[in-house]
Design a protein that fits this description.
The protein is globular and about 45 Å long. The protein is built from 2 helices and 8 strands. The chain has a 5-stranded antiparallel beta sheet with strand order 7-6-5-4-8, with helices on one face.
Amino acid sequence: MLSRVYLIIGERMFQLALDQTTTIALIVRFVETIEVTIEMEEELTWCRSSMGDFLLKAPQAENVISKIIVYFDNEGDREKFRVLEFVLSSGQLLFFDPLFIDGINFGGQEQKDDCLNHIENYTAKIIS
């Protein structure tokens, strides 16, 4: 299960983590180091990967975030996000969905459309 995602944006590193009490929300915090707490089967190997290589249309380009959109549960805690979206200056979007059965899922427009079809009672707020 993907329970944490780390993003390096400029000089800062963010951790997106599943809310441990509900597992249907994201908690976002600034961090200095990557926290590794993995119990693995003996035949598996730990690795680190850049999702930019998989998600970004031009991973080597300067991908500037032009807008951040958070989606809150209308009755929920404003510190916890239902989903999180980054819109890049190129128009591409990165969408983070904690509602996925195997933990945090991420993708683009297709992921966003699928996720928002399953959420009721949410408010979207642009924070950047």
